[in-house]
């Protein structure tokens, strides 16, 4: 995008989470001249261990705080050139158990950021969103989500993200805030909290525990390796057009949850049968598929990592970083007990 000084002051929200911490690593490696401020409330999903290697770097600063705290956000926003907004409650299952937090952070928190960005004349606000805002596609169809697909969210999570997308566009259309939005598919990779399907599956299988499969397991997701996502955000920030939305997806074609578990089990040399069917997620979307041709044609971005390569790298990382996820699983035992009725 235009009008950026050579040394940028960048506010990353939610940078202690999964994608945010991968993004900060990416940015510091590629643009060491920039100053990054990471504003993160350190909810259960925020983890400073993810950034331990850069915590003392002089181009990086961590601020513990809530994006809903208007006074704090106003103070931090002064002098910021670029906002990259990841902070959110991100887990669909938790949104079914406790929707209030999702509305608070994802909708109201985004609004606090937008107001402050406008007031301080930030040059560019990039909002990270999800393909889940589009709802569900039919199984066995070839239809994909595109930038023109109508919003039709089904979970409190996706409804709150849809709402935040609308607010970002409203601030662009009404007040002229220079924004871009990306709606991406399911990310996987290092540093993902072990509640999401891939990270839960790998960590369970390391312990020879079965992977819980919701419903019939035929649900389909589009899988995006997290470094491919970080490159896409980078492209949008540098080449994207103000007021545009870009869909970002991976290299998979209609892999069901059951098939994905079989691939993971094979890569880990575990029996393919090491899963168990459990009760379905209420409102469980059947199929997501992302047409990423706009970002490919306009910004020359494509995903590079195949599902096998990405899963291999992810499995290696979870094998080598068992302290990282064991601590999180044990600290969050109450959630896992409630969600999976483990005793
Ligand atoms: P995550 O849950 O791993 O991390 C979220 C981060 O936000 C955490 O560090 C948390 O502490 C922080 N946070 C939460 N509430 C906050 C608040 N009120 N104030 C400040 N910080 C707060 O999430 P993720 O998977 O890294 O997702 C990042 C973004 O990408 C989210 O906006 C999510 O909706 C979106 N997204 C994620 C995926 C995916 O597959 N993970 C896919 C599409 C879109
Ligand atoms: O134990 C499980 N068993 C199971 O069958 C879990 C945790 C999930 N699933 C299924 C549900 C989905 O069909 O696996 C699929 C993927 O589930 P999640 O990892 O929870 O991802 P999803 O619900 O698709 O949402 C994710 O991708 C889009 C992220 O959590 C969101 O933040 C993102 O917007």
Give an overview of the whole structure:
By secondary structure, the protein is α/β, with parallel strands linked by helices. It has a domain of 231 residues: Rossmann fold (3-Layer(aba) Sandwich). It contains twelve helices and 13 strands. The N and C termini lie far apart (52 Å). The structure holds nicotinamide-adenine-dinucleotide and thymidine-5'-diphospho-beta-D-xylose.
Ligand catalogue: nicotinamide-adenine-dinucleotide, thymidine-5'-diphospho-beta-D-xylose
Helix- and strand-based class? alpha/beta
Which residues sit in consecutive blocks of at least 5 with pLDDT less than 50? none
Q: At the third CATH level, what is the topology name of one domain?
A: Rossmann fold
- Globular, elongated, flat, extended or rod-shaped: what is the shape? globular
Enumerate how many helices there are, as a single number: 12
Q: CATH H-level name of one domain... which superfamily?
A: NAD(P)-binding Rossmann-like Domain
Number of DSSP-assigned strands: 13
| Integer-rounded radius of gyration | 19 Å
Amino- and carboxy-terminal Cα gap: 52 Å
How much helicity do the residues have? 40-55%
The major pleated sheet works out as:
7 strands, parallel
Query: Averaging pLDDT over every residue, what do you get?
Result: 97
CATH architecture field of one domain: 3-Layer(aba) Sandwich
Strand content: 15-25%
Element order: H for helix, E for strand: EHEEHEHHEHEEHEEEHEEHEHHHH
Q: Biggest sheet, strands in spatial order?
A: 3-2-1-4-5-6-11
What is the class of one domain in the CATH system?
A: Alpha Beta
């Amino acid at each position: 995008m235009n009008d950026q000084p050579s040394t940028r002051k960048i506010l990353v929200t939610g940078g202690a989470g999964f994608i945010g911490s991968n993004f900060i690593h990416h940015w510091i490696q590629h643009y060491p001249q920039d100053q990054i401020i990471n504003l993160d409330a350190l909810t259960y999903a925020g983890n400073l261990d993810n950034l331990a290697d850069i915590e003392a770097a002089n181009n990086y600063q961590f601020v513990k705080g809530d994006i809903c705290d208007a006074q704090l956000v106003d103070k931090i926003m002064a002098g910021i050139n670029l906002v990259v907004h990841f902070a959110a409650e991100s887990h669909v299952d938790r949104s079914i158990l406790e929707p209030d937090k999702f509305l608070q952070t994802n909708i109201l928190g985004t609004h606090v950021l937008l107001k402050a960005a406008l007031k301080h004349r930030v040059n560019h606000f990039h909002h990270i969103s999800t393909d889940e805002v589009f709802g569900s596609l039919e199984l066995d169809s070839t239809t994909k989500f595109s930038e023109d697909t109508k919003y039709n969210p089904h979970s409190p999570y996706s409804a709150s993200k849809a709402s935040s997308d609308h607010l970002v566009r409203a601030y662009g259309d009404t007040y002229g805030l220079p924004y871009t939005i990306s709606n991406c598919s399911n990310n996987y990779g290092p540093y993902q909290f072990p509640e999401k399907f891939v990270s839960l599956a790998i960590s369970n299988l390391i312990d020879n525990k079965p992977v819980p499969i919701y419903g019939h397991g035929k649900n389909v997701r589009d899988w995006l390796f997290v470094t491919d996502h970080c490159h896409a955000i980078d492209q949008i920030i540098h080449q994207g057009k103000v007021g545009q939305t870009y869909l970002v997806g991976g290299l998979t074609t209609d892999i069901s949850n059951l098939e994905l578990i079989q691939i993971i089990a094979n890569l880990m040399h575990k029996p393919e049968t090491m899963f168990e069917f459990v009760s379905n997620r209420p409102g469980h979307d059947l199929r997501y598929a992302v047409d990423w041709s706009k970002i490919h044609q306009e910004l020359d971005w494509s995903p590079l990592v195949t599902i096998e390569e990405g899963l291999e790298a992810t499995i290696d990382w979870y094998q080598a970083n068992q302290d990282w996820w064991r601590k999180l699983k044990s600290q969050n035992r109450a959630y896992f007990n409630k969600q999976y009725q483990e005793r």
